[in-house]
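Dissemination and training. As part of the outreach component of the grant, students in the summer workshop were shown how a complex can be specified as a set of sequence lines and then modelled as a single object. The example used during the hands-on session is reproduced here so that future cohorts can follow it. Participants entered these lines:
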Amino acid sequence: MAEPAPIRLPLTQLKRGDRAMVAGASLSDEDRAVLQAMGLDERCTFTVCRAGAGGPCIIQLDATRLGLSPELAKRILTRPCDCPETGCRERGEGPTH
Amino acid sequence: MTSQRTLLPTPPLRVAMVGNPNVGKTSLFNRLCGVRAKTANFPGSTVEARVGTCSLDDTELQLVDLPGVYAIDLELPESKLCRDCLGGRLEGCQPDALLVVIDATNLGRGLRLFRSVATAARPVAVALTMSDLARTRGLSVDPARLSVALGVPCVAANGREGVGIEPLVAAIRSAREVPATVVAASVSTNWIDDTVLAIAGGPNSLGAETDRLTDRLDAAFTHPILGGLVFLATMAAIFFAIFRLAELPMTLIEEGCAALGAWLSGVLPEGALASLVVDGIVGGVAGTVVFLPQICLLFFLLALLEDTGYLARAAFVMDRIMCRFGLPGQAFVPLLSSHACALPGIMSTRLIPDPKDRLATILVAPFMSCSARVGVYVLLVTLLFPDSGFLAGLAFAGCYALGAVAALVTAAIFRRTILKGRSRPMVLELPPYRLPDVRGALLTTYDRAVVFLKNAGSVILAICVVMWWISAYPKAETPEAAVALEARAVVADEAGDADEAESLRGEAETITARAQQQQSFAGMLGGAVQPVFAPLGLDDRLTVAVMTSFIAREVFRSTVTVLVGQGDSDDDAKVADELAQATRADGTRLFDPATTTGLLVFYVLAMQCLPTLAVTRRETGSWKWAMLQLGWMSAVAYLLAWIARMLVIALGGGA
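and obtained this result:
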């Protein structure tokens, strides 16, 4: 029996205090590159500091807080995770820049 | 050989400073260079760098403070500028070495940037900043171990407090190319994580501890209602400061320039030279330099606010409203500042990262009612509603509202047409809250003031001289009526009636000035273009007043009182009374309600300010945008003024 597909939620649907990883994003290459350069790539976990329902969304990534407009946040798909520490990264995956 | 070394001056070592935004790079630059720095613009680039010199321990450095970047390979103007600088393609900014500034609380991101510049085949040194903040977060980063890991000199430094500056200069002096082994290792996916783990220690090696105070402040400052109220209160305080605190220095500048003009009038022989120097140069430049206190205050307060970390949160609050008009949240500050004066408003658009957003904001900023319009509004509103303070107040507030609506609608139109295209997605790093760096804010203010004064001393000065010339030439002969009044003044003097003599001389001066206005090139131009303004109800005198006020709106009042009334006066009611009696050639009222309404709408919307055009050209790097701004605003002003006049006529206010 195949394992169920992991839950993927738009960033705007996460609640304050939720921890998640980026699972995908319907963004242009340029926008994706900007987010990756800011540290928001598919290898890192982040914590939601302010939920983005209807307003800006604030996440904490390593020691950095990023604010994302709702338009941008709803295009980022996330995978909730139980990783205890914000900023921890999956090894050996994702881009190297 | 020794004597050669001592005779030939050693060229300063040119060092480019590269780093992520908000890492304290500019604080380091300010600490090293102080006021020995200037802003450098580069052809084809909307972003700028600062270049400065520093001399410490016999080391002469020329530092280039490049804009903060998250990566140098992004298709963003600031990344392109860094690429060009590192590639040696920026004239005058080819670096001999690089100083990579890394935030100790965000080592991973700093190392990603280090990795991308490490292959530039230039000597590199690393400055580790924010070590104090890292320590408070339970994170310890050892610069010695980082130096070993990266193979280049690395020191901890703090620009705000001036800590580690001498070791930093020593590190720059001993900068070396990143070893090939490190460059090769850095290609590995896990290099950054491994390096961070190898050199950082403590209970929270990634520095990701939750900060409750920051959480609470963020919750308040980005709250849809509370955040909006905080923002409005902050902006009101800035607005108040710009208007009130700048009042005294502005008055002093005005009085100082007037005194200088009077002194020069006495020293220089009467004639064309004195008129050029006093009226053209001193008078013209004074009209622009008088705004310097407002500009300094605005930039000082904005620099302090930005430093506290609040401005990034405020941008988010306003983004929800501004994005409906195609503008980013950051555009609110320049637009609000333009209510004081469009010059600092336009200059403060540098807060806006996206070039198209910034351009749209620059183009619409002069729609906001600036303080120079107030005199014109008061005059025309008093003419419209001489007996109703309430209606006058309502019309006055309506002028401000009309300007703001015109700005937002224009922005929406431009962003959907000539500035079409995607904006940069609204993602901002929210820097940690901290006390502002007053020294850094003062240096930023000084830098902006120098840029403004250079502009006033070059482009604006040239424009003022041209405008003076077309208003002062050809010289009109003194009208017979004025000569007769002067003669009567002499008789009155002889009779000991000094008051009568003064009054007669004042009348003679008004008649002479009126003749000069009408017979000058500007007057002739006004007469020639009067048919264009006829649909707005303007006769040749009002057309001349509109044309001459193109240099600055406030000129309208003095010109119209000379041409139509009995000369300018501080008494608004008296001036309005005189103008209300003025008639056209056919005997009808000159300032009938329809014409006055149209004129008021015209002055709310028209680009009647040459210094603003000059600043737009400077900030956009092209006259093309300045001319578009002029053309669009003039067309909108003309069309809406005509519609307003027609509406009032239809409602029975045509006479």
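The radius of gyration of chain B is 30 Å. Students were then asked to discuss how this feature might be tested experimentally.
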